[in-house]
Each structure stands twice: as structure tokens, then as C-alpha cells.
Amino acid sequence: MPTQQLTTVGSAALDTVETPFGSVKDALGGSVFFIGAAGGLFAPVNIVAVVGDDFPMEEIDFLKKRNVNLDGLEIASGSTFRWEGRYHENMNIRDTISTELGVFEGFQPKLPQTAKDSEYLLLANIHPSLQIDVLGQMTSPRLVAFDTMNLWINTARDQVEEIISLVDMVIVNDEEITLLTGEASPVIGAHKIIEMGPRYVVVKKGEHGAVLINKDDSPFLCPAFPLVNAKDPTGAGDTFAGAMIGYLAATDDIGAFNIRRALVYGTIVASFAVEDFSLNRLKDLTMNEVEERFRQFRTMVEF
Amino acid sequence: MPTQQLTTVGSAALDTVETPFGSVKDALGGSVFFIGAAGGLFAPVNIVAVVGDDFPMEEIDFLKKRNVNLDGLEIASGSTFRWEGRYHENMNIRDTISTELGVFEGFQPKLPQTAKDSEYLLLANIHPSLQIDVLGQMTSPRLVAFDTMNLWINTARDQVEEIISLVDMVIVNDEEITLLTGEASPVIGAHKIIEMGPRYVVVKKGEHGAVLINKDDSPFLCPAFPLVNAKDPTGAGDTFAGAMIGYLAATDDIGAFNIRRALVYGTIVASFAVEDFSLNRLKDLTMNEVEERFRQFRTMVEF
Description:
Oligomer: homodimer
Strand order of the largest sheet of chain A: 5-4-1-8-9-10-11-12-13
Distance between the termini of chain A: 45 Å
CATH architecture of chain A: 3-Layer(aba) Sandwich
CATH superfamily of chain A: Ribokinase
Radius of gyration of chain A: 18 Å
């Protein structure tokens, strides 16, 4: 039977990252771990992904204590997906140095029953044909959110458009909106996406915050929390999405006003994630810290 | 005696501008006209600038009906300052095609008594030695706001630092903060500027809004109004600053909370300015339209 849980399917990776503030090698990465660590603060999360038999499973023990069910994390024979990237002085810009897909290349998501029965589904960035397949495995999801990337829009546009027509919420950045719709204006482009089916488009603007475009209501403008010690932006978008949908699952309220609040929680948890490399800051993050920063944020937007 | 008026000193120009949405030739431009048109919606504005004897004075008649005193607009023998620029598809990027200083090169601001007696001074982007000179001519200003550009930070840093130490509010963008302070983080950089003297730093982020950094209070995060028909961003920053300081002059309240509201009014008026080329949209803008969009904005930030 359907439950107030969050299921997410995406990548599980080991990241080698260099930023102006340091570097890590083969650190925990991939969308599902950021989503699990962030969403698990609010609601039970079911992770569906694949790692290789070289994956250091003990490093994700902390997720189990945080409401994260790893039954859907397949361990396949071979190497874990590895990504290596380097950020510029301005951390909005990064170069991908290498991508080794490993076992991720043959990933066929198989959802355990608990994952199927979740009412909240976050389709993180994987091939749209897999996203369509996962959605088909779900029992009766109440809210389906979707992320993608330029690569899939360029190489599998028909399937990207198909999955967009099936979901409730599209999470994109400015560049992806333009690529999807041909519109230079994110606002106009977001409304074109809504015409394709979804009720909500969440425009991620990184250090500039996010905007919620709503089919039936006025937009919501969500500034970013001002950061003084950002060290590594990797995973910030997944953390944002994970906290946002985790909050919706926990409150089980998908009305426009609650979705606004979900964006703010996403913003707040992401502001912690970037304060350290990999999942390091999320590991010991508490809801007390989140609520305290949420209150600070409120005082920063009053006028 | 001091009055609740705004005095501004800056450039008066004729702009030739091309954007993806059209072009204009020798159109009204320069900081003081945008500041006058925006600030004049709220409070009397005294413009101090210079034009050549080729300047079409009849085109600024509308400013007189809007509380703008042109006694400080000198008409010098020679050509008006001309700027030509072209915006890319992404209108955050522009190329300067030509700059002809004309009479602006020998500009020596001379303030009429009304301008000297104003309590609110907005030093728009001109050489810092002129800004220092103008500040010295003021009788007893209550709030002095200051804008600059990379050129002066690079070529006259000592004078830029001197004027910063004398003003109450610095209005800058991310790039200028980094150039001024060596800090990649705008928040940390803004606090370094505050250590130089000012109480307030307003960080302009263009289409991403603005942030107010405050010596004694938490930051204020001001998102941008979502634009669906931006045509020409020229003058948006000056319009923002003009409306902001004009609102402060009108309310005569420089407390932190009122400055937040001033940023919102700046954001709103600037959102109109970019909807047409040059000053075209500001010419017939009414306070009713401003207040209506202000109310819309409020509904867009609630959570």
C-alpha cells in the first residue's frame, strides 16, 4: 500500500573533485546519496541505484540511521561509476576531467516493493528511458519529480519529452530550459514546460537561489542562503531536490504553499551541503541546525 | 537648509544599443537620466551632469514634470558623451563597441544650492576624484550612496578607497567586490567593504536580484522580479539605485528595515525599465503601476 516515503533512482558514484578550497579522491558521490542524506532528514527514503563490488559500503552506514533504505542499491560485478571534475575560482564553472561509467552503464533499475509503494518519487538524472521504466514500476505515486541534463535533451529528446508529460514537477536550470524549449527567458520557457504536462517547474539558479513556476498560482522567488564558506558545490542540486521532496513526503501536502516551503528547506539543506566536500557536511547535519538556519533565512527575506 | 531631496551626479549620454529584441540610435542614456526618471517617482531629484550643445533638450522635458530639477545640467560647447553597445542572446553579456567622451571628458561638477542642500546624495559612476569633490560641496547630507566601475578600481584605486571611506552605502556587483577586496565570495567581500567605513553594501546581481549587507543587522535577500519581456538592460542598475535612494529621500527613514523596502522598490522600478529601450518605459511609468507590481512581488516571496 502507498506510503509517505520518498523513492529516488539515479547515480551512485565515487567522485574525485578539486575546488579552490581543496580536493577529495574517490569520495561518496552520485545523486542518490545526496538525495538520501538530505531527504532522509525529513522522511524515509528508498534508494534505487547500482554500485560496483569495489564500493566502500561501510561509508554509507550513516544513511541507514537516517531513514534511508538501501535494499534497492544493487551491487554489481565491476567498477563503481567514477566522476572527476575541477571547479574554477568562480565555482559556478567546472570542467569534467573524466567519466568512467563502470557498472552504471548497464544499470536496469529494479524497485523493491517498499520503493514501489512510496507516494513520492524523485527521478534523478539518468537516461530518460530508465526514468520511464521506473515510473511504470510505481504502484500509485502521489507526486513525481524529475531531473535531467543537457546530454539527454540532446541525445534522447523524444524520451525526455515523454517523461516530462508524465511527471508533476520538473527540476531544471536556465540552460536546460533554453535547450528544452528554445526560450532564452527562463520564465517563458518554464511556462512552455508546464504546457507539456507538469504542474510545477522548479528553476535551479545555484548560488542565486530558485524560482517555482506554478500552473495555477503566482511564481515563488526563493533566494539562496548567503554562503560565507562554500567549499564544494558538487551535489548541491541533488541535495536541494532531495530535501524538497523529502519535506513534501513528510508533510504529505502538495499544495502550492507547502511546495514553496519545500523549496526553502531544499535551499537551506543545500546551503549546508556545499560547506564541505562530498557528503561530509550532510553526514552529521541535524534537523535542529536546519530549523535554526530556516529561521535565519526568514529574517533575511522580510521587508 | 537641508531638504528631503535626492541629488545625483553622473553621466548624461546618447546611447546606441542593439539587443536581440531591437535597437536604438542616439537614445537618451547615462546614469543621471535613469536615476532622475526613477527617483523622481518618489522625491525631488537634482541632476548634476554635462551634455553637449548637440543634446536634444526637448527629450528630457518629461523629467521636469517628474520632480526633476535640471538646473545642474550644464550645456557645454561640444559633443554629448556617446556610448554604443551590443548585447548577446544572453543579455547578461554585452560588448562596448565605442565610447566617445565628448564634453564629459572635462566635466567639473558644479552644484546649484538646491543640489547642495539635498539630504540624499547618489554618486553615480564617474571618476572618484569628481565624487570626492561633489561630496565636499554638499551642505549636510544624511545618506550618501556610491556607485563605481572596474575602470576606476583599476586606475584610481586610492581615490576609490577614499570615497568609500566617506560614504554610507556602496552599490556594487559581484565582479567589483572581487576586484575591490580580492574576495571571490561576495558576502565576505561586502563585509570587507563595510570595514572600510560604509554601513551598507548593496550587491547588485542583475536578473538575480540584489543582496543588502548590513553592518549591524542580518543580510536582506531581494530576489529579482521575474521578467517575461526584457528588451534592453541598459540603465537597469542606475534605475534600481535611483528608485532606492529616491524612496529613502521620500520617506526620510534610513533604518535597516526601510532600506530593505527601498531595495524592493528599486527592484520593481528596474523591472519596468528593462521592458523597453532607453528611458521609454520609465517615461510614462506611474506610481500606481509601481505599487501594483510591489504587491505582486510580495505574493511571490511569501512562504
